[in-house]
Amino acid sequence: MILMTAAAFKPSAETAPQSGARLLVSTLERLGVEVVFGYPGGAIMPVYDALAGSKLKHILVRHEQGAAFSADAYARKSGKVGVCMATSGPGATNLVTGIANAMMDSVPIVCITGNVAQGLMGTDAFQEIDILGVTLPIVKHSILVRSAAEVPAAIEEAFHIARSGRPGPVLVDLPKDVQFETTADDYGFSIPNEAPRVDHDAIAAAEAAIRAAKKPLVYIGGGVKIGGATGALRAFVAATGIPQVSTLNALGTIPTDAPGMLGMLGMHGTRAANHAVQDSDLLIVVGARFDDRATGKLAEFAPNARIVHFDIDASEVGKLRSANVAVVGELREGVEALTARMRSGAALNIQAWADDCAGAAKAGAHRYDAPGEGVYAPALLKEISEAAGDDFIAACDVGQHQMWAAMHCRFAKPEAHITSGGLGAMGFGLPAGIGAKLADPSATVVTIAGDGGFMMNIQELATLKRYGIPLKIVLIDNSSLGLVRQWQELFFAENYSEIDLSDNPDFVKVAEAFGIEAFRIDRRDQVSDGIQRLLAADGPCLAHVVIDPRDNVWPLVPPGKSNAEMMEGS
Ligand SMILES: Cc1ncc(C[n+]2csc(CCOP(=O)(O)OP(=O)(O)O)c2C)c(N)n1
């Protein structure tokens, strides 16, 4: 827990007395916040009282987890800080999964929780939870605000910390007496001057390593988009011709169909990407953290490769794989400086390697002509992403459908792919779709969910209806917890334990009961028309897509194995 430091404040002009709750709202307005996702309750009622009549658009979700997930996706899509709020106790604990999600994927959100009055703290008061304690390991920072006069500075500090450096979630806990207290003081907050520096010696060493390599490969992580370095990385790749692989969170950083982009690496990566990594003699790792889903068995990951690692977070460099060259700092400046050096020297002589990689990508290209009449989810997802074009944004849930979306959708830009990468939280897709659509009403946002995960936040259909959010939902229903079923089939001798969801409700009726247009697709010949109908619908719309429960995701690196050992299905 971090309490505010006096040095962070500077006294500002005296103003008319306002309550802490009112100061919270006016500070959010001053910071340019437009949308807040939340759910009221006893310990945050003064804030809700102050919200009425404010410029903030408050979205009343139906479960606080939805508020945190929506704020997270709003931040990912808009590039701004997402904001959610909840009451003390159960409201606050319902935010926890969303906070962890933002932490794992480095997403800037500010979570505001009410708490019992300070005099009651520590007494097991009604709905009292030490939410700072509960969330300590999963926040970037947390602030317990002790007086109304501290509110503006606390919120500004929270925003600053959430989005600076490596972004992440910041929790601001407001006891109820602080919300009620009135004050004419506003201490203000001065943002520390943190001019980015580029380590030119490290950049020179990176250039030397690249020039010495025969098989260099760029390993792109989610940090590239978070760091606003997408343009810089695209320029680097264009200048050098070095092939690239992407993590799940970085999909779209380089468009899926760009030459040199080999696709996702790791457990459900492409053959071309995984082989290129294993073959490479130099990995240029940019904003990635060597997640085990990406590396497979770490000891056998990229065995021949030296490592050049760019990251804003020094603690990521050398954490799991030591770096031969470490470039710690803002990614955009670092990559731009490297590109300038590469441009000013001779062109790289890596054509044979680039051709090898391109040949492998072509040879390993997925075939979409699966046998049978049933819906083939990879083909459907490919088709919908292509039909939606460059405005396509997928907000994915977690499971087989998520992996199919990652492997088969076309992503033209990094914000086009919104997924719970690090935490892998089922239930993310629907609220994430809501957040993304509110961040960019002109985009074609499609939630891609499985029947299991969809049920985890299905109540947010009411949020869609209430605000008329024209989100499109592709619900891929295999009557089971598909990814778990696949692992049981492959690694637990077909002992199918607790994965059957064949008693799912009729999802079309469920959606209709919430007032949402819905229809069913259960044959391949219905797919194209169904996609057109979904994309053309004026309001929210759900396509309930029924697939064969036995369909599996291929290829797959078995858990604990090296990425060289990919399994292929029949
Ligand atoms: C909150 C949560 N609980 C459990 C899991 C473990 N888990 C990962 S994938 C999966 C199955 C998902 O099933 P479904 O949503 O139907 O999608 P499918 O795999 O069938 O496409 C489960 C249970 C998880 N990721 N998140």
Molecular structure report:
The chain is of the alpha/beta class and 570 residues long. The chain has 23 helices and 20 strands. The strands form 4 sheets. A 6-stranded parallel sheet has the order 3-2-4-5-7-6, with helices on both faces. Strands 11-10-9-12-13-14 form a 6-stranded parallel sheet, with helices on both faces. Helix 13 links the parallel strand 12 (282-286) and strand 13 (306-311). Helix 1 (20-30) runs parallel beside helix 7 and helix 16 (377-388) crosses helix 17 (400-408). The longest helix is centred in the first third of the chain and has 15 residues, at 64-78. The radius of gyration is 24 Å and the shape is globular. Thiamine diphosphate binds at residues 397-401, 424-427, 450-453, 476, 478, 480-484. Its EC number is 2.2.1.6. InterPro entries: Acetolactate_synth_lsu, AHAS_TPP, DHS-like_NAD/FAD-binding_dom, THDP-binding, Thiamin_PyroP_enz_cen_dom, Thiamin_PyroP_enz_TPP-bd_dom, TPP-bd_CS, TPP_enz. This is Acetolactate synthase. Pathway: Amino-acid biosynthesis; L-isoleucine biosynthesis; L-isoleucine from 2-oxobutanoate: step 1/4; Amino-acid biosynthesis; L-valine biosynthesis; L-valine from pyruvate: step 1/4. Keywords: Amino-acid biosynthesis, Branched-chain amino acid biosynthesis, Magnesium, Metal-binding, Thiamine pyrophosphate, Transferase.
